[in-house]
Write a structure and sequence with these properties.
The protein has 191 residues and is mainly alpha-helical. The protein has helices at residues 25-33, 62-69, 83-86, 108-161, 171-182; strands at residues 8-13, 43-49, 54-61. It contains 5 helices and 3 strands.
Length: 191
């Protein structure tokens, strides 16, 4: 943790940004540059939302961040917020929430850990998808087997009930016709 006076600070009014671009570091950088004594491209900054229209900006010269990033640190945070920032906040902010070792300055161990975690999560998703597909394939195969068994049983019943025929008429139609031929005919009623 470094003293607050080693950082550049600002509270930005994000209401000035177009709604579709609100929240991008580039847009915040343009707002931050208005309160900086140096060009915004010479510093590395992070932005912490304070609500829908306000953002806390904290930055440090790029050379200083590179110097600290070369050390075995995992964070560069202020010890405290400067009084002019603290007094303008609605709620207090823990300085540890501000970390400049992000993006291009992210420490290799953290980047490696995130990469490994992402790979493990992707592998778990692929494994779950494979299990679901396998289960659905097995279920579909069982349903095909049941449909085939039902069709086979139906053909056997038709063969047992119907006399052999070379007619192209389907067995179900022949069975219906046979059943109708065996039913008693309704008597014609007298008028």
């Amino acid at each position: 943790m470094l003293p607050a006076d080693r950082f550049y600070w600002g509270i930005l009014n994000a209401a000035a940004l177009p709604r579709r671009a609100r929240g991008t570091p580039e847009q915040f950088g343009y707002l931050f540059e208005a309160v900086l004594p140096v060009a915004v491209d010479t510093i590395h900054a992070v932005y912490l939302p304070l609500g829908p229209d306000r953002v806390l900006a904290c930055g440090m010269p790029r050379a200083a961040v590179q110097e600290h990033a070369a050390m075995p640190w995992v964070t560069i945070s202020p010890r405290s917020l400067p009084p002019f920032i603290s007094s303008s906040l609605d709620e207090p902010i823990e300085p540890e929430r501000i970390n400049l070792l992000v993006g291009e300055f992210e420490p290799a161990p953290i980047r490696s850990h995130r990469h490994t975690t992402t790979l493990i999560a992707c592998a778990a998703i692929v494994l779950c998808a494979a299990l679901v597909v396998t289960g659905q394939s097995r279920r579909a195969a069982r349903e095909r087997e049941r449909a085939f068994a039902l069709e086979t049983a139906t053909v056997q019943i038709y063969d047992q009930v119907l006399p052999p025929s070379t007619s192209p008429v389907p067995p179900s139609v022949r069975l219906t016709a046979e059943r109708r031929s065996l039913e008693p005919h309704p008597r014609h009623s007298r008028a």
